[in-house]
Amino acid sequence: MTQHGRSEPFDLQVARGIIPNHSSVNIYGFQASVSTTNIPIWENATAYTYPVSATKMHLVSTVNTGADLTATLVINGLDSGYNQISENITLNGTTVVTTVNSYLRINNMIVISGSPTGVITLKDLTDTTTYAQIAANFGRTQMALYTVPAGFTFYLARVDAYTSANGFTADYVQYRNQQTSSAGVISYTQQAPFINNYHALRVMPRAFTEKTDLQLQAKTSLNTYAVSIAAEGYLIANTAPSI
User: How far is residue 117's CA from residue 111's CA, in Å, rounded to a whole number?
Assistant: First the structure.
């Protein structure tokens, strides 16, 4: 039974937040210049570096006028124990703003008020390593990375990847799913060459245990192409909280 009818699809109920201990996770990534080296699909055409320990971070924009001085973002990440944390933080243009929380992982950033036009970055306190970035005028991160919080299991249900490699030549793009356990063990669940579009809809969603780092990666066989990734799944608590 639901709030407004006799029944509705389970997926919709999860998205509506009315299934206890379940929530939906949507992962988006885009990179316009993927080449022949495997990288996670995010705002920079490079490998991704994780913090070695939980740390406060610097948030800054490349624009120093208008909404870039007043816009508010929410940062969603994990603390030193891989527990979910978040905070609302207001931009101050090209002047860095330091987070209140210390983050071990960043899962996404989203603008929740205002319409900033600059490139927004979240970096370490020395301003050398980028942990999250929002492209100009985009409003949220496009990073195909996700770390499973402590006490939860993530069930990956669908992955779609798109590319500008269209099959007119012998070029193709290879998608792969890299996961790293909290013990540092790296493994891959899928490697698939494709042109135009890759689609995987799992009958049995793939389970990823707590504290696992997921990277949805891609590389090209030759030349440079744009690649976009969209994935979704269920985040389910391992143990129902006591009432």
Answer: 11
Q: Give CA torsion, residues 55, 61, 66, 67, to 10 deg.
A: -50
Alpha-carbon gap, residue 206 to 55, rounded angstroms: 31
DSSP β-ladder status, 197-208 and 130-134: unpaired
Q: How many residues does the chain have?
A: 243
pLDDT band at 4, cuts 50/70/90? low
Q: Where in the chain is the domain with CATH 2.60.120?
A: 10-48+145-237
Contact 196, 165 (CB under 8 A): yes
Are residues 29 and 229 in contact, defined by beta-carbon separation less than 8 angstroms? yes
Which residues is 55 bridged to in the sheet? 103
**CATH number, domain 10-48+145-237:** 2.60.120
What's the pLDDT tens digit per position in 106-142? Answer: 999 999 999 999 999 999 999 999 999 999 999 999 9
Please state the φ and ψ torsions of residue 49, each to the nearest 5 degrees: -110, 125
CA 129 to chain centre: 17
